[in-house]
């Protein structure tokens, strides 16, 4: 019965696969069909539609939202490298083993405890309104500057923890091997530990940056009109929530590819470290 | 608490007595079957006492959320001079007083008025509402009328500039003097539209959720001046942000400079018509003017900035 080159087992597996695809397809169609058919039957649907999915409002506001979003991207682009550098510095501080440098470890531990424990929104409000109040002059009191500083302070603590986890995940034998080859403690860290650690933590790191992309919007609280604020302004103007839906769409256009990319990296990493995947 | 209440009662009855003593014909609501005498604590100054004219009592019947009750929404918190001390139940503050005035004119006693608190967003979100109408300085605009309904205007406000001493906005006589000023505005107001459409400054304006944010930014020198409606400007400069003054107001004809404030209803609420009738009556019999004089400062002293 079996085709040439196809074992009975492979033929069985193909049938099984076709069957599961068919089941997945059917259940998806049923669920989506039910949602599409039932939601408009709810008594409030036409009101929700008018307030959240107004095509005219969307087309009026979308271009403004898009141009406001460039601010979010700019802020993200200058924050991200600062976060990486400062996060890595903190992680290294926390990993040093020299007794004389214990204060450094203490500082790094206290720093991550504090900034990881404070909601980002509070850090932005406190730094963004507090520091410029000290008497700085333009442009040094800009909310863009201090909002970004707040984001860097908060996110570097998350990123530091990710890096630290990566550093600790490198097996002790690597360190021992490097030292026995004559590398100094600093060289071991630089050439042996960190390269392995960074590669392992790239997927969780990307998760943090996807969430940074969204939290940039919180800077609107201290003045700048970026996408979230622009959406809020248009919401008030039209008394309609559609601009928020527009903003959500714009965020998704960026974060979905980002997330898929992270997934792809994770899959590759899993394959690399543990062989084939089991279904 | 009991002492405060009884004091308030005593004060109320004294005021009511005084008002009645001054004008024999004033028996609020006696002819209409609705008891419009002041509920405990409700303000009874000259603007709210005396003979009270009403519209047809059938108008609002059955159209309110709860029978025999008018439920009015206001801000959370509500700000002076619109509502004094965040306590609309006292009838103190312009919108609090207008709320009671509308209710009385539709035939409801002060004790039949219930206040609820909502944010701007809650007032415009779809779904059932917990108020009959909502007053928190909502500007009437055609865009908003697509989603919600407005009463007629109960107040027309000009935009005004508030700044600290030494601000580059100081001494401005026309919008040309304001091009290089860094402005701030409050989220959800029409002031930002005004800044962008009429002043057109060279720097983009910043926007804050509340006066506290604007204040911090003013004090930190991040912005030079804020644009708000005139009554709010006068209140901010007098009470909220020390060291500020109202630099000027814009003429009512400038762009959307004149904001017409209306009460917000759910779309096509049948009560709109009754509130409009009530407001029309309050305008013709001079009540609205009296209430305005009682709660909003005189604008005459504020210099006018030309928009040419």
Give an overview in words:
The complex is a heterodimer of chains A (279) and B (308). Chain A is mainly α and 279 residues long. Chain A has helices at residues 8-38, 45-52, 55-95, 102-117, 120-130, 143-169, 172-180, 185-215, 227-238, 242-274. Chain A folds into two domains: 1-32; 60-274, Orthogonal Bundle (MetI-like fold). In chain A, 78% of the residues lie in helices and 0% in strands. The radius of gyration of chain A is 25 Å and the shape is flat. Chain B is of the alpha/beta class and 308 residues long. Chain B has two domains: 2-156 and 260-295, 3-Layer(aba) Sandwich (D-Maltodextrin-Binding Protein, domain 2); 159-249, 3-Layer(aba) Sandwich (D-Maltodextrin-Binding Protein, domain 2), CATH 3.40.190.10. Helices cover 29% and strands 18% of the residues of chain B. Chain B has helices at 2-22, 94-105, 120-124, 191-199, 211-219, 230-240, 271-284, 287-295; strands spanning 70-74, 113-117, 133-134, 148-157, 159-164, 183-186, 206-208, 225-229, 244-249, 259-266. In chain B, strand 6 (183-186), helix 4 and strand 7 form a beta-alpha-beta unit. The model of chain B is unreliable at 1-38 (pLDDT under 50). Classes of the chains: A mainly alpha (279), B alpha/beta (308). At the A-B interface, helix 2 and helix 9 of A face helix 3, strand 7 and helix 5 of B. Chain A: The chain crosses the membrane at residues 21-39, 75-93, 114-132, 238-256. Chain A: InterPro entries: AA_ABC_transptr_permease_3TM, ArtM/GltK/GlnP/TcyL/YhdX-like, MetI-like, MetI-like_sf. Chain A: Keywords: Amino-acid transport, Cell membrane, Membrane, Transmembrane, Transmembrane helix, Transport. Chain A: Residues 69-262 form the ABC transmembrane type-1 domain. Chain A: Belongs to the binding-protein-dependent transport system permease family. HisMQ subfamily.
């Amino acid at each position: 019965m079996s085709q040439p080159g196809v074992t009975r087992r492979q033929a069985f597996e193909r049938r099984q696969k076709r069957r599961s695809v068919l089941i997945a397809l059917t259940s998806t169609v049923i669920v989506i069909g039910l949602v599409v058919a039932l939601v408009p039957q709810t008594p409030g649907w036409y009101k929700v539609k008018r307030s959240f999915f107004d095509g005219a409002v969307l087309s009026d506001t979308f271009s403004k939202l898009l141009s406001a979003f460039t601010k979010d991207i700019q802020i993200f682009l200058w924050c991200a490298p600062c976060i990486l550098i400062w996060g890595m510095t903190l992680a290294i501080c926390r990993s040093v083993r020299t007794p004389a440098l214990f204060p450094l470890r203490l500082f790094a531990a206290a720093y991550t405890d504090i900034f990881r424990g404070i909601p980002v929104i509070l850090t932005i409000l406190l730094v963004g309104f507090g520091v410029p109040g000290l008497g700085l002059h333009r442009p040094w009191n800009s909310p863009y500057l201090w909002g970004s500083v707040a984001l860097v302070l908060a996110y570097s603590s998350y990123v530091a923890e990710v890096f630290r986890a990566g550093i600790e995940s490198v097996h002790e034998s690597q360190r021992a091997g490097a030292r026995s080859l004559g590398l100094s403690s600093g060289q071991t860290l630089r050439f042996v530990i960190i390269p392995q650690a960074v590669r392992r933590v790239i997927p969780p790191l990307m998760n943090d940056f996807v969430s940074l992309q969204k939290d940039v919007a919180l800077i609107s609280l201290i003045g700048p009109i970026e996408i979230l604020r622009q959406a809020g302004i248009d919401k008030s103007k039209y008394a309609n929530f559609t601009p928020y839906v527009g903003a959500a769409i714009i965020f998704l256009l960026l974060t979905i590819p980002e997330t898929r990319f992270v997934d792809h990296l994770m899959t590759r990493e899993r394959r690399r470290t543990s062989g084939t995947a089991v279904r | 608490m009991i002492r405060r209440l009884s004091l308030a009662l005593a004060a109320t009855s004294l005021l009511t007595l005084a008002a009645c003593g001054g004008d024999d014909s004033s028996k609020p609501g006696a002819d209409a079957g609705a008891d419009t005498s002041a509920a405990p604590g409700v303000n009874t100054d000259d603007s709210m006492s005396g003979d009270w004219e009403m519209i047809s009592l059938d108008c609002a019947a059955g159209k309110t959320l709860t029978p025999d009750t008018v439920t009015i929404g206001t801000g959370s918190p509500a700000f002076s001079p619109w509502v004094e001390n965040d306590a609309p139940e006292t009838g103190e503050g312009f919108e609090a007083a207008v709320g009671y005035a509308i209710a009385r004119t539709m035939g409801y006693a002060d004790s039949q008025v219930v206040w609820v608190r909502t944010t701007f967003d809650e007032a415009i979100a779809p779904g059932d509402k917990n108020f009959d109408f909502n007053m928190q300085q909502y500007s009437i605009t055609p865009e908003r009328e697509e989603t919600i309904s407005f009463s007629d205007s109960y107040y027309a406000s000009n935009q005004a500039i508030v700044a600290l001493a030494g601000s580059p906005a100081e001494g401005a006589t026309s919008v040309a003097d304001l091009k290089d000023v860094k402005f701030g505005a409050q989220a959800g107001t029409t002031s930002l539209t005004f800044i962008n459409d009429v002043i057109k400054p060279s720097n983009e304006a910043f926007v804050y959720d509340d006066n506290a944010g604007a204040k911090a930014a003013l004090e930190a020198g991040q912005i030079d001046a804020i644009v708000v409606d005139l009554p709010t400007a006068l209140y901010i400069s007098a009470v909220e942000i020390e060291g500020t003054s109202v630099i000027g107001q814009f003429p009512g004809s400038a762009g959307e400079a004149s904001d017409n404030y209306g009460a917000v209803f759910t779309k096509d609420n049948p009560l709109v018509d009754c509130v409009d009738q009530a407001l029309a009556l309050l305008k013709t019999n001079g009540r609205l003017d009296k209430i305005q004089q009682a709660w909003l400062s005189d604008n005459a002293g504020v210099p006018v900035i030309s928009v040419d």
